[in-house]
Write a structure and sequence with these properties.
single chain; 71 residues; mainly beta; 5-stranded mixed sheet; 3-stranded parallel sheet
């Protein structure tokens, strides 16, 4: 599974189900990225679990929240 998001401005919420792991490659000029997953964070990467999926997010400004769907 993969996900690619390119965003210039504004706020965005992305909902994904609980899974065994992913890496978010984050490239941003400004703005805020948050997630409800328990990630290990660096300046350009957020890692969760076994890192089996790759999510790429490029943003200029605004905010993106990656939200865990739980049932």
């Amino acid at each position: 599974d993969s996900l690619t998001v390119k965003k210039t401005s504004g706020d965005m919420q992305i909902y994904i189900p609980e899974n065994d792991g992913f890496v978010v490659n984050l490239k941003k000029v400004s703005g805020v990225f948050n997630t409800s997953f328990d990630t290990t964070d660096t300046k350009t990467e957020r890692a969760y679990g076994n890192k089996s999926r790759i999510y790429t997010i490029k943003m200029t400004s605004g905010s993106i929240k990656l939200i865990k769907i739980t049932e």
